[in-house]
Amino acid sequence: MTDYKYLVLGGGMVADAAARGIRELDEHGTIGILSEDLDAPYARPALSKKLWTDPDFSWDEKVDLHTADATGATVHLTTVVTGIDRDAKSVSTRPAGDDGEPEQFGYERLLIATGGHPKGLGLPESERVIDYRSAEDYRRTRALADRHAHIAVVGGGYIGTEIASGLVQNGAAVTLVDPDEVVGAGMFPSDLAAAFQQRFVDAGVTLRTGRRVTGGSETEDGVHLTLDDGSSLDVDAVVSGLGIEPNTDLAEAAGLSVDDGVIVSATLVTDDNAILAAGDVASYPDRILGRRRVEHVDNAKEQGRQAGRNLAGAGEVYEHTPMFYSDVFDMGYEAVGQVTSSLRTVEDWMEPQTTGVVYYLDDDDTVRGVLLWNVWDKTDEARKVLAEATALSPDMLIGRITP
User: Fold this and answer.
1) Residue 75 and residue 376: Cα distance in Å, rounded?
2) Pairing of β 103-112 and β 323-328
3) pTM of the shown model
4) Of 12, 367, 371, 381, which is least surrounded by CB within 10 A?
5) 20: nearest Cα among 231, 311, 292
């Protein structure tokens, strides 16, 4: 059995940030990272953003996080964790492929950073059916775009819209299948959603809105999809961007509390004082918004760093309320909190549907989320609005945040 002082389950951005956080307090303690991925930790947002839009955005300089070089951590790739033995303070693993032998790794402190797995279409994943999540998925999708393939992107949310935008800008023919009647309607006010959708139309994306995929099969030269209205769609390949489900099975099997994520305290500790959790998989108490689970990069980096420091004994409360952002065509936004059309909105536009701020209010007229549309570097002001929300009436929001 290989022993590490600090052992991280998962090889994403949380693992990288945690290793760096550990090194802020402990220069020499051994760090092991167990990852199912083919690639060492990398900047995941690039997979649906910059790698599609910036030809000078290189993998080695901009995407690879160089975790091992920066921290001295040992990264074990293509390694599947099969169980956690809390009494023995060890984890069991098997190789992701057919080669190799099962192994065990001991730990003094353990971090669960297992992230999530894509919500797929229920079709066998292949070169033509891609549940988009990893760098390998990006490489397969990029190869399809380079061949100018006709690709169906399923899902009109955060990931689906970015992928559709990237594909059509790189020579692919794109059909976007979205259960919403208007692309973006699940997040944005109606006028903004209409303007958002029009940008896809202008770029040449074919839209199948108000539709869901109910089945499909691979054919000799492509994929045949069946939609919920009985219609069908024949394409060269399909990419699913339907979001993720947290990978909580290991934690639950180990007897840790789970409820839409691994339950952690304000210091990111689970029921077991030797085990922490962070990132997409962690349900934590946000100091402003209450208990939540966040699937965005800002949280992965900041929470991962705090988890690393706490693994090394800091015992500090995670106080950061994370933001998220998206870039689609020539549009972009940053946001904090709940951004959903199920809440009512107060809109403050400098230029309608081009530059402005949208506030999302609950039934008590309390601000629960702030959307900054082409308004940059104002997330701290958005967090302040959320922190002071109970003292702010709707009429006090207009003009509160400006570019």
Assistant:
1) 36
2) unpaired
3) 0.95
4) 381
5) 311
